[in-house]
Write a structure and sequence with these properties.
By secondary structure, the protein is α+β, with helices and mostly antiparallel strands. The protein contains 8 helices and 5 strands, in the order ααββββαβααααα. The chain has a 5-stranded antiparallel beta sheet.
Length: 148
């Protein structure tokens, strides 16, 4: 099974429940989106890791950025899903999503997204200011630890 196939299977219930459309960008990146919200799911082969972002769409698309710097500094329209899961549950829940099996990891993410991000998938972005604060605090901690 390819990453794209695994994504479509794992996110199948989310696709139906939240009227998401799948956009396959390449063999390692899939975007699921409805009119207001997008999920970007990326498989990083080098790290054997899966990353998921959730974001507010502008005109049914992820915002366009003029530069990588602008993209990196957008702390109001898109977030790593782990921050939302951590905010609404705990850091341990967010860190427990990864599994050695790609399919199990994707299933874990799909389940957590349904549980912790249903309002965002329905167009309610009221949690985004809290996420912005959480991300900024995380960046500051990484700087203090000398990791940034």
């Amino acid at each position: 099974m390819t990453f794209v196939n695994e994504c479509e299977k794992s996110f199948g219930s989310l696709i139906l429940k939240y009227n998401l459309k799948a956009l396959i960008l390449d063999s390692e990146e899939v975007i699921f989106k409805n009119k207001t919200t997008g999920l970007r799911v990326v498989y990083e082969k080098k790290e054997s890791a899966i990353f998921v972002q959730i974001g507010r769409l502008v005109a049914c698309e992820f915002p366009k950025y003029k530069s990588v710097h602008e993209y990196d500094n957008d702390l109001k329209n898109r977030f790593d899903i782990n921050f939302l899961i951590e905010l609404r549950s705990s850091k341990s829940v967010a860190s427990s999503l990864f599994n050695s099996s790609m399919r199990k990891t994707l299933d874990n993410y799909a389940s957590a997204i349904d549980k912790y991000a249903s309002d965002v998938l329905e167009g309610d972005f009221s949690v985004f200011p809290k996420l912005t604060k959480l991300v900024k605090a995380n960046i500051e901690q990484l700087k203090q630890d000398g990791l940034l």
